[in-house]
TrEMBL record:
GO biological-process terms attached to the record: proteolysis
Record's signal peptide: none
GO cellular component term of the entry, any: lysosome
Record note on quaternary structure: Homodimer. The monomeric form is inactive while the homodimer is active.
Name of the featured protein: Carboxypeptidase Q
Annotated keywords: Carboxypeptidase, Endoplasmic reticulum, Glycoprotein, Golgi apparatus, Hydrolase, Lysosome, Metal-binding, Metalloprotease, Protease, Secreted, Signal, Zinc, Zymogen
Length: 464
């Protein structure tokens, strides 16, 4: 009986200790997360950083003067935070230049023309100096080319008009289901003798802004490459309707873009060294380059300043991490992923131990949660943190994709994550002229920063 009583007493004591510790730990986490949100909403620097990136520097296409200005500016701002280390990581990036503004129209009868808004796709070749004018044929996606065959396509301009699916609540799914026509449409259409391609913009909204984005020719010889441009959604609908009335419409477009030799650029990196486990690295980042039509505020200036803000918030509340917290502003996500690839290459070569990487590359809108590329066991642990985010309406914790720049880091045991803001307005601005600072809401941006900092705090505190 005595031994039995002793065992029961010990078990009872362990239960009391466990729940006392768990309750204290949970309360401490709540307090730390509250501090992070409060600091983000009252002392954050991200909105001012984004203002400078957007309005003083502008679009930051890889290899451009503006991209280098952004490197210099963000490094100087990280230096000002008093981090343990800030440095530039060299990386060779492609240099593609748009040239003079593109011009296009369609001709219903000789001399009767209607101008339409287009922009060259990133990486496209130019048209001949006088432009291209030819009969245009509409297709609903890349797969339809084979159905039509060379006889109906040769000598024509192919008009890819597969729209994003409005029934998809996750707009990134709608994007994924039709972006192949933008990326590989020119390569595939050229196999059937097309002279050029015009692609419906990846945009759920009807407006007059053509949306650029990367496209590729693979290993196709330069002489066989055909020019590719995006057309605004309003213009795409007008052209499609006009083709129903008159299939013999001619389309004309002219663009002057050019690909140059690769040039040197940099990833911008800063870190707070861990106090007890400095060898374990947690990365948070976004991509510093953007397309050239707007100023890249949502894609991905927002993600960059939110990632910088994570370290700033830790400094503001006096939090000293156990593990090394590193911000990485990747160069060249938009048309090459060279920055992400280089970072992973160096990390592997130096045997760095990364345990977690978080990317923000879905716009500066209201945060809804995160997606995680992890094992089921690790995800179960992550889900246990979800109640801590519910007071901030950050409810979405799901397994899924993370971010393009951190993807090359992927290896067994490393958990990748992506911030998931509300996506309903993202493709209104994505890769377009209207991706500008005025369309970023300060409070939404700050809430995203706080959510990221809170997740990084929990990963640092509990590890995996």
């Amino acid at each position: 009986m005595k031994n039995s009583y002793s065992v029961k007493s010990k078990l009872a004591l362990l239960v009391v200790i466990f729940f006392t510790y768990f309750g204290f730990s949970q309360n401490n986490d709540q307090e730390q997360i509250k501090k992070l949100y409060d600091a983000a909403l009252t002392q954050g620097k991200g909105y001012d950083w984004l203002n400078y990136l957007s309005n003083q520097i502008g679009g930051r296409l890889s290899g451009s003067v503006q991209a280098q200005q952004a490197v210099n500016y963000t490094k100087s701002q990280l230096d000002s935070l008093g981090l343990d280390k800030v440095w530039l990581q060299p990386v060779m990036v492609p240099k593609w230049v748009r040239g003079t503004p593109e011009f296009a129209y369609f001709e219903t009868t000789p001399g009767t023309t209607t101008n339409v808004a287009i922009c060259a796709l990133g990486g496209s070749v130019a048209t001949p100096s006088n432009g291209i004018k030819a009969n245009i044929i509409e297709v609903n996606g890349v797969e339809e080319l084979a159905t039509l065959g060379k006889g109906k396509i040769q000598g024509k301009i192919v008009f890819f008009n597969k729209p994003m699916d409005p029934t998809q609540i996750n707009t990134f799914n709608a994007y994924s289901n039709c972006v192949d026509q933008r990326y590989s449409g020119a390569l595939e259409a050229s196999k059937y003798g097309a002279l050029g391609v015009i692609v419906r913009s990846m945009n759920l909204r009807l407006d007059d802004f053509p949306h650029t984005g990367s496209m590729g020719y693979g290993e196709q010889p330069i002489d066989n490459r055909i020019p590719a441009a995006a057309i605004s959604t309003n213009a795409a609908d007008l052209l499609s309707t006009s083709l129903l009335l008159n299939p013999e419409i001619n389309f004309y477009f002219k663009q002057n873009c050019k690909q140059f030799e690769d040039v040197e650029s940099y990833n911008v990196i800063g870190e707070i060294r861990g106090s007890s486990k400095p060898e374990e690295i947690i990365v948070v980042g976004g991509h510093l380059d953007s397309w050239d039509l707007g100023d890249g505020s949502h894609d991905d200036g927002a993600g960059c300043v939110q990632s910088m803000e994570v370290l700033n918030l830790f400094k503001k509340i006096g939090y000293k991490p156990k593990r090394t917290i590193r911000v990485v502003l990747f160069m060249n996500e938009e048309n090459g992923l060279r920055g992400g690839t280089k970072y992973a290459e160096v990390a592997n070569a130096t045997n760095e131990k990364h345990i977690f990487a978080l990317e923000s590359d879905s716009g500066g809108f209201t945060p809804r949660g995160f997606t995680f590329d992890s094992s089921n066991k690790d995800f179960d642990k992550i889900k246990s943190w979800k109640p801590l985010f519910e007071p901030y309406l950050v409810h979405y914790f799901e397994k899924g994709e993370s971010g393009a720049d951190i993807g090359p880091l992927k290896k067994e045991g490393l958990i990748l994550a992506g911030l998931r803001p509300d996506s309903q307005r993202y493709f209104d601005y994505h890769h377009a002229e209207n991706d500008t600072f005025e369309h970023v809401n300060k409070r939404e941006l700050e809430l995203g920063s706080a959510s990221m900092a809170s997740l990084i705090y929990l990963v640092d505190t509990y590890g995996f």
